[in-house]
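In full, the data.
>
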Amino acid sequence: MRTTTIILVSILCCLLLSNCIAQTKFSVEDAIEYDRRLAKNAKNYIPANGYVPDAQTAIYIATAVALPIYGKKKIDSEAPLHAGLKDGVWTVIGNPPKSLGGELIVQLDKKTGAVLFVSHTQ
């Protein structure tokens, strides 16, 4: 009888504990804060070829940077974008439109991915 009671109490405690854990909700903000704290003490991974290893990656990043600044219509009008690498810096440019309006210029650090320069000529 005593063993049965101990087993039943143990099962009941496990059920109650699992129910409490299941009801605990973590928000996206909680997850971000947790990862922010992990990142403070973790070793940063830097790829051997840098964060921007090729022209296509440079174009993707330049597009992501330019869209909120200049708008989709203006950036799409300059497609396809072109990228060139010199001295560890990617320079991404838009195709100048046939009419007046200038072109996009974005420069990115190959190793770190840092945005070094953003402009749109007139």
About this structure: The chain is about 45% helix and 20% strand.
